[in-house]
Structure formats: C-alpha cells, structure tokens
Amino acid sequence: MPILPISIVMQLTDLTARQIRYYEEQKLISPARTEGNKRMFSLNDVDALLEIKDYLEQGLNVAGIRKLYETKEMPLNDQAEPKTLSDAELRNLLREEMKHLARPFSQASQRHGDLSRFFK
Amino acid sequence: MPILPISIVMQLTDLTARQIRYYEEQKLISPARTEGNKRMFSLNDVDALLEIKDYLEQGLNVAGIRKLYETKEMPLNDQAEPKTLSDAELRNLLREEMKHLARPFSQASQRHGDLSRFFK
DNA sequence: AATTAGATGTTAGAAAATCTAACATGTGTT
DNA sequence: AACACATGTTAGATTTTCTAACATCTAATT
Fold it and tell me: How far is CA A73 from the centre of its chain?
C-alpha cells in the first residue's frame, strides 16, 4: 500500500530526501512510483527506513545492510531469488563490520515497530 | 496525523478532488495544510469522507450531514462549542431530509471503519 | 600527509501534483 | 422555466518531487 509522499516519510523517519533516495539507489528499499514518477511509500517502507537508520547509527554501512537483507530475510524487494552467499563472503563481511562496531550496546535496538506512536 | 496527499485520498475513497475540496469548503472536513498550502489528510479524514460518501449515497445533502456533525458528534473539527440547535430547527431539517430518503435500507451502513482492508 | 571511498549536502532545471477561481453541466425541485 | 446543489472542466499559478551533477565531510588506506 504505497500511500505516503516523500515529504511525510522525511518527517516520520527524520531522514532527508537525499538519504531516502540514496538508500533506494543502494537497493535497500523499493518505493512505488506514481504515473508521474513520484515516489510513494508504504508503511513497510517507513519501517524499513527506521531499521536502516538504526543499523547505520550502529555503525553498519549500506553494503552491510544490503547483505543482511539478502540473507536473513527479504523485507523489501520481494525478489524471488534467495541469492546464495558463500560463508567466506559472509564472515568476511561481518568481520569488516565488526571494526566499526565499537559501541557499548546501551539501549538495544528494540524499538523498530515504533510507528505506533503515530497512530492514536 | 496528516500524512496523505489528496491523490491517495482519492484512491482510498473513490472521490474526485473536486468532491473532496467541495466537502471541505462545506465544512465537512478540515484537512491540514503544508507550508505550501497543499492539503494533507489524516486517516480520520478518510474515514469521515467515507462516511460522508455513504450519507450522500443515502440521499442526505451536505447541509444535512453538516447538521448531523454539529449535533450528534463532532468527529472532524475539534471545535469546542457544542452549538445549541433548536428542536424546531432539527425536526425541520430531518423532515426535509426524509423526503429524499426513499431507499429501502438494503445493506445497512455497517461499513465505516472499513479502512482496515488497506492495512495488511 | 595525501588519497580514496562512503554517505550526505547543495544546486539547477524539468516535470508532476496541487491549488484557487471561474464557468459549465446534470438532476431534481419549485 | 428557473433554481439550487453537487460535480465536471479548464486555466494559470505555485508547490513538490525528480534526476543529475558537483561539493563536502569523515574514516580508512597508502
């Protein structure tokens, strides 16, 4: 259900249009388009963006998040191919990301579906 | 929470932009505005529009619906004044509307909060 | 210290969506 | 026939969003 224009998604996620478009370019989200080529977002997209934001704040980079989605789950692009990923590839990636993860996990990331606050 | 542009509300309610703007002009709804003066609708607005549509299809006219809102409840403009309405005024109105209500209430109007179908 | 890569900021010009206002139309009422 | 109500249609202006390019900042590499 793509119902939200980018301006609203910006407010909801506190991301800039630039960031949102970049994440799409990087295949992290796939918002729908109007006939006139305007992006329209679903609530799922917003959820995904909040998750992406969370991961980024935790030090992951876009490539890493993409890999996560390609393997663990595929919450955005409903592409039918599970995309086989070699163990080495994955371990290498994770090790790479580890270097950035120099953060004491204070408040855990248990706040994803927090869109609830927007809907009385 | 005004989050929906008029184009989406049109799809959701199957109303034309003209109709939606007219109902606002007639004080049946009060959508928010962006800084640039674009209308932004809440889910409540959409609900109200579906209700309005229902009433209109049942033969009520805009003035009648407005009166209903002014008395029974006030689901849209959170105006603080209950607006005292004389009995005569009300009875007169209802009698007026009765003339239009030449419809055997086949499928009752028990389908208002049916926005659920839009949200998985 | 200089370079590179990743993420984001900024800008320009074009295209799409929405706005208001005016006038037109259809249908039922007087 | 004239009228009122609800809606259609159109025009011109304004806002929003788009893509593409180039700029900047930070962290990692050389």
Answer: 12
User: Is the shortest CB-to-strand distance from A99 to strand D under 7 Å?
Assistant: yes
* Residues with pLDDT less than 50, chain B: 75-113, 116-117, 119-120
Cβ atoms A103, A55 nearer than 8 A: no
Q: How many domains does chain B have?
A: 1
Phi, psi of A56 (to 5 degrees): -65, -40
**pLDDT > 90? residue A61:** yes
Does residue B47 lie in a domain region?
yes
Q: A55 lies in which domain range?
A: 6-104
Q: What is the pLDDT of residues A78-102, one digit of tens each?
A: 444 344 444 344 444 444 433 332 3
Question: Could B3 and A8 be called an inter-chain contact, meaning their C-beta atoms sit closer than 8 Å?
Answer: yes
CATH code, domain with B11? 1.10.1660.10
Q: Which residues contact B55 (CB under 8 A, 6 or more apart)?
A: B64, B65, B68
Torsion sign across C-alpha atoms B61, B65, B68, B70:
negative
In a domain, B22, yes or no: yes
Token pair of B27 as six digits = 């004080």
Judging contacts by C-beta atoms under 8 Å, the chain A residues touching residue B118 are 1, 3
For residue range B66-86, list pLDDT tens digits in order. 998 877 665 444 444 344 444
Output the pTM of the full model: 0.73
Q: What are phi and psi of A76, to 5 degrees?
A: -115, -85
DSSP state of A36: T
